[in-house]
Amino acid sequence: MTAAWGLAGHELIKGHGTQNDFLVLIDPDREVEVSAGDVAAVCDRRAGVGADGFVRVVRTARLPGAEAFLEAVPEAEWFMDYYNADGSVAEMCGNASRLFAAVLDAEGLVALSDGESVTIGTRGGARTVTRSGDLWTVDMGRARLAPADGALADPREEGWDTTVTVPGLDGPRAALSIAMPNPHAVVALADDDELAAAGLAGLTGSGAPVLYDPQPPQGTNLELVVPLGDRLDPGTGERVGLARMRVLERGVGETRSCGTGCCAAAVALHTWEGQGAPEDYLIEVPGGQLGVHVGADPLGQDAVVLLTGPAVIVGRFTLA
Ligand SMILES: N[C@@H](CCC[C@H](N)C(=O)O)C(=O)O
Description:
Blueprint: E1 11-17, E2 20-26, H1 36-43, E3 53-59, H2 67-72, E4 78-84, H3 94-106, E5 117-122, E6 125-132, E7 135-139, E8 144-145, H4 155-158, E9 162-165, E10 173-179, E11 183-188, H5 192-197, E12 211-213, E13 221-232, E14 239-249, E15 253-255, H6 259-273, E16 280-285, E17 288-293, E18 306-310, E19 312-318
Parallel strand pairs: 2-3, 4-5, 11-13, 14-16
Antiparallel strand pairs: 1-2, 1-19, 3-4, 5-6, 6-7, 7-18, 8-10, 9-10, 9-12, 10-11, 13-14, 14-15, 16-17, 17-18
The chain binds ligand LBFN2T5F.
């Protein structure tokens, strides 16, 4: 007996970025029917292959309604068609975008030597990924404050715009909402004991028992962050902010890393510290460490957040 799914017979690539793992389908001409049900089935860790997300590599020109986007960014030949493990779509995935570039190179679709870049399309806009040996840096675009309805006039003043109640942690906690452009709510915790006490394991990343007030209309990813101060970078002499983080991803559950989540956490840390805050951050997640450059004014009009980390291709296989 073989599994009954619409992706039967297709080759997939398995890979990860700091253990945020993905299944990648190469479908340049958009010939494969990808349904939410099939994505959920193949991402299931028991009955399927198992992954936090599913990515289709497709030519941007093959997407319905992509003309205006391609006119604005003609170099974005390839589009990252990204799905969460439950089959829902998301605007952006930082870890998958590094793997996407590594797969383009490994599959011979775009040759990327050290120092070379590729611009890809995502639902959140164009993103440029640059190779530096085994590391990849993604230009994540602008961070935006995403205050929930009825929130504070300028959350930068207070440092928060919403509250979240997390199993295992007492009381509602203040959270700052940041869009990368996918939604994130960042909560600062006192120490590692609190981080360990948060009952994220086994949650689905959708709805109760994590309660937001007000409820983010499109749902949100949740980052629990322990600030660890900073250290001097011996190379640049600049301060580097340090933090440890756990994440509950929308449409997935707790994952071992989240690239957009690390960016949101770094922007929140910078916002909370205010003027003179570090422009670079190292965020430790259960699956490794990611570097985030936020610049001096990460929420400014021209700001660009940069995410740096590894991308690992684990193998290729064919679905029965
Ligand atoms: N793991 C990703 C984020 C994936 C999307 C997220 N679950 C959402 O629904 O917004 C990352 O590395 O950024």
